[in-house]
TrEMBL record:
Name of the protein described by the UniProt record: Large ribosomal subunit protein mL43
Localization per record: Mitochondrion
Keywords, comma-separated and alphabetical: Mitochondrion, Ribonucleoprotein, Ribosomal protein
Protein family per UniProt: Belongs to the mitochondrion-specific ribosomal protein mL43 family.
Source organism per UniProt: Iphiclides podalirius
Length: 183
């Protein structure tokens, strides 16, 4: 394990407050667009502000959008989320369409998940004290020494008997009880 992964916050993959089960709450709380009014590297961000910002803000009323002009600095987008995470993205020399896509990425994710070190691949709130389940957990131990195929273990006795099978059994019982008639 490298030293870089030791200093990452550890956690589990989970949806915040079961988001989307009852209703969806956008996790992006605030977007700050920092740009230069005259620098060439900010051209794509200025085009986004002129063409699409008003539509983005009206489509997403829960997201607060701040514009921060700065002289002679590279354009930056900072996204702040409900869980306190901040995502900082450099937009130097990005086109208008690339910036639109990156803002959509910020809008749809739940925070800075890239900087979280996963503790386990699976997680549950109620772990089993009996260990993991396997298909052989509740099998009969006599199956270990049985020579297969075996009629006893091959029979499907877990399903209820069908009406046709019950009629066959009743018919067989009746034919065994009837004695042949003497002529």
């Amino acid at each position: 394990m490298s030293n870089k992964t030791l200093f990452l916050k550890s956690g589990f993959v989970r949806a915040p407050l079961q988001n989307g089960v009852g209703r969806y709450v956008c996790q992006l709380q605030r977007v700050v667009l920092k740009f230069c009014k005259s620098h060439g590297g900010s051209r794509g961000l200025r085009e986004f502000i002129e063409q699409d910002l008003v539509e983005f803000a009206s489509n997403n009323p829960s997201i607060v959008v701040y514009l921060k002009p700065r002289r002679h600095r590279s354009p930056v987008i900072v996204g702040e989320y409900l869980n306190g995470d901040r995502v900082w993205m450099n937009m130097h020399n990005k086109t208008h369409s690339e910036i639109t896509k990156w803002i959509e990425v910020l809008r749809t994710q739940q925070g800075d998940v890239a900087s979280t070190r996963l503790r386990k691949n699976q997680y549950t709130d109620h772990p089993s004290i009996q260990g993991p389940w396997t298909p052989f957990t509740f099998k009969d131990p006599r199956l270990n020494i049985a020579e297969l195929p075996d009629e006893e273990f091959g029979a499907n006795n877990r399903l209820p008997m069908t009406a046709t099978e019950q009629l066959k059994i009743m018919f067989e019982k009746k034919t065994l009880n009837i004695e042949p008639q003497k002529e």
